[in-house]
Amino acid sequence: MIESLSLLGAGGHPAHGTDFTAVDIRTTGLRPGRVVEVAAVRVHADGSIVGELTTLVDPGAGIPPGPALVHGITRAELDDAPSFGAVLGPLLDLCAGSVIVAHDLAFVTAFLDFEVKFLGVRMPVLPGVSTLAAARSVVRLPNYRLATVAHALGVPTRPGQSALSGARTVAQLVTGLFGRYGFTFAAPPVFPGLPRFAGGRLLPRAEALPVEPGWMAEALERISAGRSGDAYLDLLAEVVADQHLSYEEVAALAALATEAGLSEGRVRSTHELLVTALREIAERDGVVTAAEARELREVATALGVAGVDLRPSAGGKATRVLVLGTTVAADGMRSRVLAEGVQLAKKLTASVTHLVVDASVPATEPRLARAAELGAEVVDVRAAPVALGFEPPPAVLAAAPAGRVPKVLGGRVLMGVGLLLMFIVIVAMFSGAALAAGIFLAVLGVGALLGGWLIAEPAPR
Asked: For labeling, which of 25, 156, 340, 368 is most exposed (least CB within 10 Å)?
């Protein structure tokens, strides 16, 4: 139903004038099956919103809604919801003439294909873009979950449980990626004519207020998941992000994993991988709070992972960085902070130790003065890698102008020769050598020292 388009940098077909429709879904499981919620947000290339659609979807009488602990949808809510057949018409009307975008495009496409085949209708191939794949090509991150990529690219709100929340985040990501990184299409998108279906009644669910992420949610953004990804690990991360994990929820997760064909050993190793990674993140900055130790023990116990004896450490303040800016340099620094395992803040609080700014941040930005009041160090994005300890300070010679490096080296060599001569004079004089020879060598040594110092002396500015 959706085919991923090849993207290029400069030189391809520009996205100017192209509309994107960001689509997100909530499903009954990890493998292609039924959709229980769908949302779509159509935007112009400049990010302005054209229209939105969101609705719960009834997968059929008696069919369980799937991981309610992840998407928050109950079977009772689906009883009054329209079927996918009643939703397809309005969804296609919103998507017509636009490029379909999803974070994990392959995952969304597989479920939509399943629903379309279940209806027995034929659909043309629609052009699509994956924000996950696009992000991988421009920023290096520990993992490419939607929340992680959104945080790294400065999207202000964290995606929540609902499909609409996810679609809005994807819409901001795709316009930011195309606008900031200059993506173009390898070939002009082809927009086929779409079949018309009668529209039905939609049933949006109430949008929950965004929850401020706790330590666990932030730590999950810094866990390395490799390039291949793991659907069960992603699902597990979504569940533990709120720091609460009951035995009932673990059992429900295990059932989903079994349904998706994962062995008991694979599930157990994924649990161990997650707990080990969380522990490494907690210990990496040298400061373990009582809350971090307690929450990690609770998650480890619920997941059946033994041997977690993480203990709080007294004193100290963990490095916590807030990066302001809308440039590629700011994105790169946010990504670097996450990749280094350092806490990346979303807003300025007393816990922030460094405020990094790029050229897009005006001098009148109120948070600059507020950071000084809170004792946070304000750093230019170019100096941040050294200030944060990610890179060593540049060597003196590396900082010197290229033309002066040979002179500096030559001057230091000459000074070394002078010191050697002075040492020889001292030894010779104590050994009873002739006074005239000693004076001659001493003069040469002093001359070498002075000459070398004059050559190596920094040029006046």
From this structure: 156
